[in-house]
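In the current project phase, the collection of sequences with tokenised folds has grown. A representative record is quoted in full directly below:
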Amino acid sequence: PNRQAQFISFLNYKNISYNVYIEDFTEIEKGFETEIIERKALKEAKSAISPTLDWTVYWTNEEIQEYSVRLATVYPFLVRYSVIARTFEGREVFALRISNGDFGRKPIVFIDGGMHAREWVSQATVMFLLHRLVEDSVSSKELLENVDWLIIPNLNPDGYQFARTTNRLWRKNRNRINETCIGVDLNRNWAYTWRAPNAGTVKKFLKKD
């Protein structure tokens, strides 16, 4: 706010036209908390009526993990669940291999979700894709015919939890770099050799049983 006048002067100097759509974004942020409460209440109400999946709300990290484990348990011939890492706060990062047989013989589609904590629709999209890949018999047959799938539904569970409970616009993970710096932006920290043959974790996971 203390730079508003400077910013408007810049726009005028550059002859950039503008309209104010939101006078105070703080009010929007406050609405996020209300939305979380309302969505939680709606989910609980629907769960009491029916155990079926609810795609109208954003799932918690625990619900994402529970559903993924359930897929691997109910459909062991299609899905393999593996924990591939642990976060700074001790949560599991897991991946699912999905194949109709002999994983790795066909081209592999790799998908990750939730890299940025505040982009909740990312995990939601991935979870719905998992549902269609495994539980929808029509789309499953078509989508698994020519490719295998390797999916990490939530790469940043620490940040996701923090965005849900503390700071809705949090982007990074929760790794404590030092006393004044918390969080790493995950897609700004790839090693330049990330595709190297000795990339141990991924290579081990892709290796056939």
Notes: The beta strands are 79-86, 92-98, 108-112, 148-152, 176-178, 181-182. The chain has a mean pLDDT of 85.
